Amino acid sequence: MLRIFARLSTASVLLAALNVSAGATPNCLSDQKPYALTDDVVHWSMTIVPGADCIQGLRWSYMQIEQVSISSAPKNGKAVIVGPGFRYFADPGFQGSDTFTVAVSGKNRKTPGKSILQIEVKARSKELQLSSSQK
To answer: Which residue from 16, 73, 103, 124 has the least number of CB within 10 angstroms?
Structure first.
């Protein structure tokens, strides 16, 4: 009887946890052209509210990522590597634009290579963020 009660308690806790909505980082990248790990250089654009952060994975289904690194750090925020991706944290007083560079190496369909991602970050005003989230 004690086992049944323990299982029911565990099941109810799991069901309650499943009903909690997960929060995800909004899509802050635009012009996200795929890279090919062929010594290519790709330019991406990011728009972000001051004080916010954006997380971006770098893996495509046909790639095996072996190493990701920040080759050129941003000046108006912080970029860190998170698994096969990166996370950018904008400074609270961020205005204007910023740039940073990410180096990716691995295999594209079993062919080894590397790519450079040059990311331009533009500040979005908090008023624009609020008005677009109300739609």
So the answer is: 16
